[in-house]
Specification:
Blueprint lengths: L3 H16 L10 E2 L10 E7 L6 H4 L3 H14 L3 E8 L3 E8 L5 H23 L1 H4 L20 E3 L3 H13 L20 H6 L1 E2 L15
Antiparallel strand pairs: 1-6, 2-4, 2-5, 3-4
Helix pairs in contact: 3-4
Amino acid sequence: MKTFGSYYEHNFRNRQVALKEDFSTSPRIQKILIMSVNFSRTYFTTVTIDSYQPIFKDFPMTNFIVLESFKTITQKGQALIYAFVIMKDHLHVVWETGEAVKIENLITSFRKYSGRMISNHLKTTAPEYQNLFLSTRQDRDRKIWKITKGNINIHDKEMLGVKIRYIHNNPIRSSYKVVDDCTDYYFSSALAYAKKVKNFEFLTLLENVVPWS
């Protein structure tokens, strides 16, 4: 039986290969799903690692915990995910909540589940690193995510485009620059918009969006 770490490492290698494939012919890639946006339930959300520890850079497999969390969210009908990027110490996502789902509850659920999974992964792979996230709260031993309200309601198409471009430009800007072309950055929806097909099954791609500037 594969361990948690080896499972994600195996998938990372496979997906790195898939990244180089022609998306238009790959049977693993689903065609674009065009949906109308309900702006009353659509948000730009930022979630940051506690103390800005570069956990997603230091432990790349933790990126896949976020991806699996996004997959679970969409499978349960809690949200549609339109765009995302995972950087070394934070992530951005544009998503539309389900009809009966409150954005605050969605964020709390995401942080709780992914934080627990990340903490468990560190416990088996880097216990010293895990101790960087010791919590003083009585309801938990570790606190992976900062408890902040980095959340903005997107109220029109113009703002939607601005936020998606901001997300996709993250890996090519300032101190967070890791690539020259945003479509070369794996943990992002930029490539999906470039190819107009989704390379992560949890994505819902939008029509008539300029994905970067």
